[in-house]
Amino acid sequence: MGERQLAGRTALVTGASQGIGKACARMLAEDGAAVVITGRREDALRAALDELRAQVPGARIEMLAGDATSEADVKAALALAHGIADRLDVIVSVVGEPTFKPLLLRDLEQVRQELDTNFISAFLAVRHGVPLMQPGGSIVCMSSAAATQAGWGLTIYSAAKAAVERFVRAAAFEIGGAGIRINAVRPGLTLPPERQSDPELAPMIAVYEAETPMGRVGLPEDVASVVRFLARDDSGWVTGQTFSADGGLDQGKGPDPMDAIYGRELMEQVRAGRPPEG
Q: Is the pLDDT of residue 254 over 70?
């Protein structure tokens, strides 16, 4: 396995019951870290915990079910991670979920929820995590290729992830004096193998593959390997940056899967600025 650069260190990974978060937890544990994983659904989190422990025998991996947009739940997860060895070295804020829905079909409450999920979750992890960390600590927040693109259906998600990236740049100035680094990773569409073979997702995947220079959507490990680099001392002179791990997707105009999701007839009305009532 090679040198375990995170041996003796402790990490918290939010949104770790599946996908990118679970892959990040595995790679950090393989690198020697004790890892706490969190997620809202206790059953899915328990299944992820069992899988991770089987994949990384001997690693210390714990779980705490909770909502990454709840201040109380975030504080509890951070305290659990810190309590493992009276230290907290790595925070990976993965929680985030796009809602593919045109701007003119949205309501205010949906917008607030999406901002909470995709931006406030990162703020809470940083705000309450930094006081528990010591010099040398690293925080990694998850952005998205959508932050740099104008694409149909992702207006609010794009705005939230752009906020994450600007937050990371500004926060680097404020926490750098404490010896703590903060960076972001910008994935493209990323799905585990079993979801990439889901027939219901095939139309959307085809759109993204066509717009991605590397010709495929991402795997969770594609993103987690960049997170691991940012968590290690190898990146000890890097802070306030966002790294794309998207197969080149963010160089394009942005995919438009709206017809595949909502149907061409409805989208013709929306594109004309005349969404249906109700």
A: no
Residues 14 and 77 sit within 8 Å (Cβ to Cβ): yes
Backbone angles phi, psi at 9, to 5 degrees: -105, 165
CA distance 190 to 219: 5
Residue labelled with tokens 């993965």: 94
Structure tokens given for 94: 């993965």
DSSP per-residue string spanning 175-226 = HGGGT-EEEEEEE-SB--HHHHT-GGGHHHHHHHHHH-TTSSPBPHHHHHHH
Q: Which residue has the higher pLDDT, 89 or 255?
A: 89
Q: What's the rounded Cα separation, in Å, for the pair 29 and 4?
A: 9
CA distance 190 to 230: 19
β-bridge partners, 61: 35
- State whether residue 12 is helix, strand or coil: strand
Domain boundaries in the chain? 10-268
Rounded to 10°, the helix 155-175/121-129 angle is: 10
* Cβ within 8 Å of residue 27, ≥6 positions away: 221, 224, 225, 227, 228
Q: Which CATH number fits domain 10-268: 3.20.20.80, 3.40.50.80, 3.40.50.720, 3.40.50.2300?
A: 3.40.50.720
Nearest alpha carbon to residue 178 among 122, 237, 133, 128: 133
Of 10 and 206, the one with more pLDDT:
10
* Residues annotated as part of the active site: 157
Q: Which of 168, 172, 150, 163 is nearest to 253 (CA)?
A: 150
Q: What share of the chain is helix, strand, coil (3-state, %, to 5)?
A: 50, 15, 30
